[in-house]
Specification:
The chain is mostly helical. It has nine helices and no strands. The protein starts with a helix and ends with a helix. 30% of the residues are buried. The model has no long low-confidence stretch (mean pLDDT 93).
């Protein structure tokens, strides 16, 4: 296959990869929201397997490359950890001092608790296990997906700044569905929080570009996700018997 055809093929693969997580979130988080917990969990599992297998399958089977995924350079780790700690600390402070008493947030708490109950996470052990999984494993899978594959492929197709911007907006898109479900899709809060996600994605893409390693972005992402679940645990406290 000639180069122009390869380029067109890869562009469509990146477009698909950018859209796929939003479709996955739509399937398990929105369309299956009223289904039994088992249906939601199965939908989530199947959709996520498809999502995270696509990049490695594309690179090996279609592009015929031998992928280099785990380049564990220590360069950028300190920055990643410091950035993650700053964002995590800011989130916890924002929740404790502003959000938990803000009317718009209080109004969303019931919906968040209903989602936790609907996904059968309303006990301390299960909620904690899911939080640990998301913080340690899912954050790494998202870095592999968004930074290694989406940003990496875009870096070969366009210049650095557009690659960072496009990949970060793609990373933001499926978060809009989650945040908008609770706060409303026309609420400024939804878009402020979503843009914060995009900014985080841009920082992690830039860090990955500078270091060639997922370690720094992953550790940073891990800390942010841990803070999200720490806030979630406090929101879920009435369901957890706390």
């Amino acid at each position: 296959m000639d180069q122009p055809a390869n380029r067109t093929r890869d562009i469509w693969a990146v477009v698909f990869a950018i859209v796929l997580p939003t479709l996955v979130t739509l399937a398990y988080f929105v369309l299956a929201a009223r289904a039994p917990a088992a249906v939601q969990q199965i939908t989530y599992a199947v959709a996520k397997v498809v999502q995270f297998l696509f990049p490695i399958a594309w690179v090996i089977v279609v592009q015929g490359r031998r992928p280099r995924l785990w380049n564990w350079k220590l360069r950028g780790v300190v920055f990643g950890i410091v950035f993650g700690l700053c964002i995590a600390g800011a989130m916890l402070c924002l929740y404790h001092f502003i959000l938990r008493s803000a009317p718009f947030f209080v109004a969303a708490v019931g919906h968040i608790q209903a989602k936790i109950h609907g996904m059968n996470l309303a006990n301390p052990a299960t909620f904690t296990a899911v939080g640990v999984f998301y913080s340690l494993v899912h954050s790494l899978l998202e870095e592999y997906y968004w930074r290694w594959f989406v940003f990496g492929q875009l870096s070969e197709l366009t210049r650095l700044v557009p690659a960072i911007v496009i990949s970060s907006l793609g990373f933001m898109a499926h978060h809009v569905l989650v945040i908008g479900t609770y706060f409303g899709f026309f609420s400024p809060i939804t878009w402020v929080f979503s843009l914060a996600v995009a900014i985080g994605g841009a920082v992690w893409a830039g860090l990955y570009h500078r270091t060639g390693s997922l370690l720094g972005p992953w550790l940073s992402h891990l800390l942010v996700d841990a803070a999200i679940f720490a806030v979630g645990y406090q929101i879920a406290a009435p369901l957890l018997g706390k």
